[in-house]
Amino acid sequence: MEVDKMDENEWKYHGEGNKSLVISHVQHSQVLRFLKYPAEEIENPRQTSEEAFQQIQNIVDFSKNVMKPFLGEKYVHHGEAVKLPLDFVRQLSSKVQQKRPESRCDKMMDTFSGYALCLPNLTKLPDCHFSENRSPLCIEIKPKCGFLPFSRHVTKEIKHKVCRFCMHQHLKLANGKWKRLSKYCPLDLFSGNKQRMYFAIKHLLEEAQNNLKIFKNGELIYSCKDDKDHLQDLNELAQHLKPYFYPANGLINGHQSTKAIVSELIQVITAVLLSSSDSCRTGDNRKVHTSEGRGCCEASLLHRDMHRKGNTCLPKDCVLSKILQAQMLDNLDIEGLYPLYKRVEQYLEEFPKERSRLQIDGPYDESFLEKVRNCPSEDDGTVEYAVGKVHQYRVAMTAKDCSIMIALAPCGEDELLEPSLEIQPSKTRFAYAVSILDLDPKPYENIPQQYKLDTKIVNYYLKSTQARE
Ligand code: ATP
Ligand code: ZN
Ligand code: MG
Ligand code: MG
Known about the structure:
The chain has 469 residues and is of the alpha+beta class. The chain is built from 16 helices and 14 strands. The radius of gyration is 23 Å and the shape is globular.
């Protein structure tokens, strides 16, 4: 990318989250991810552009030096910070404004610093050129936390029975964030049991919220209903998908075909989520046991029997297993972590200069990773222990909030692919690539808010479910 020859006509709106807005190149497989700020701060930025740059560099460093070692080289693309001409950025910002969902417009993209994160476009397959009828499909899943807390610091019994996502749904419904409850339960997705995973993905398709998006040739074709009404219709989705699963075949039609096509899609997604190319090559079939009774959520609508009989383990190197292991660095739960956060705060009050040695706000380098990896397992009363647990908690938070991108493209019988890049659970052979995105460090300062939110979610869940009984 030649930053001095940027032309806003070559870029278009791609999507956004709570913290950033993403623009994609119309031809090249590249995106620019801009940070967002509250609308009123854009004219009067609270940050200097140097600080904005530092924030983006922190994201790159954290993805590359901290998250990548946990999640695996092959899944993480850390990208690089780029400085862009301000007039290009401003023209881009006004160009994309009308494409943005209204619910996201309380924040605006950064038009003051000129810095952005440049990443590969993960909705497309790397190094592949496909003809029109073979546009890549991409399924984005934001899986959220896949285990029940096992910490002895947990005070509310319900947290050992119902998962965070399922409890949070009730509060989100009450707050008006969503209009319908999602039946998705992350514990089913992370179970490794194909039947449970099937239902988890089906429930995501039925109520996408911000946990599922589908792209075709880089364009969003399916996502949450509350943002854009016409985008969540399973029949319409099936029409898009039909050529992938039933090429040149008019035999199935109507309602039946939607069901059949969606089912094919779910099977492909499941197979990719469980694939672990390393074990293919080496014949290493070790599994990671995640549950022993902790892998089932009482709020999940699946029949109890299915929970009990299913094997609940994930292949060792599959993307779900990598994410789950990073999430499980949160082994004290916020209830056990919060007192340690306060220990750190108290220490910093006394010795403010220690903040940088303890790397509270970075840098996110090898030495930060060491602190995460080498934290003692027992509390020895030191500030080092407390900092280590706080750092681990922050890594886990990031892993609980990331997205999985699955890019798929059908390939012909004659095409030869590396075995690790190919999958065929349905009639069609697919080339695929899996990546993990949205790996920003979560601010240290947010820990007290996390503590309050946890209490609020649990109390509201107890209140609303008890009221129904
Ligand atoms: P959240 O609110 O989930 O924290 P965020 O503001 O941190 O989101 P991202 O999740 O990184 O932002 O990006 C927003 C959306 O942009 C993603 O959900 C995804 O659809 C799209 N996106 C981000 N990065 C890429 C990429 N490298 N390639 C393709 N699409 C991307
Ligand atoms: Zn659940
Ligand atoms: Mg995101
Ligand atoms: Mg994010």
